[in-house]
């Protein structure tokens, strides 16, 4: 597989569209459409910049999940707290800000920050740091814009076990929830 060219298709407020032409394994030219959170000027920039953070947070023995309406699927789902990195902002500062803006919670302590990973490789080069942290406070809708419908809550392993049978999740939050309900993520007294 070899990338031959990149052509910008459009610039949106939050996403930029590109058409990539590449040579497939059989030596034939194919096109692929992708979006990026970053304005790309050269193919070497594809996937090179991290867009934000995804937060796995807990308090005591409960996992934080957001219940939020997502326009791209026209439904409410369970998701992890996440957000975009602002100019000059550190990963930790971004996690603190996004956690507070979306939930009203504060960071009690950072547990781990994993290197950036790609969240939608089927159509985007969006990458985020995965931040594990312990939160403090009580969830509330803090600084939400009128364009966001988010409610945050902490859930026990038993609650999550039942939710996984009936509720709709984003894939990353569903994976985290499965590991949490099976005791593979920290709870009270662990780490």
TrEMBL record:
Among Pfam families, the record links this protein to: NUDIX
Entry-linked InterPro entries:
Nudix_hydrolase (IPR020476), NUDIX_hydrolase-like_dom_sf (IPR015797), NUDIX_hydrolase_CS (IPR020084), NUDIX_hydrolase_dom (IPR000086)
Q: Give start and end of each Nudix hydrolase domain.
A: 48-177
Q: Which PROSITE patterns match?
A: NUDIX (PS51462), NUDIX_BOX (PS00893)
Q: Which cofactor does it need?
A: Mg(2+)
Q: Residues of the signal sequence? A: none
Listed GO MF terms: pyrophosphatase activity
GO:BP terms for this protein? Answer: nucleoside phosphate metabolic process; ribose phosphate metabolic process
Q: Which UniProt keywords apply?
A: Hydrolase
Name the family. Answer: Belongs to the Nudix hydrolase family.
Record protein name field: NUDIX hydrolase
User: Species name for this entry?
Assistant: Candidatus Eisenbergiella pullistercoris
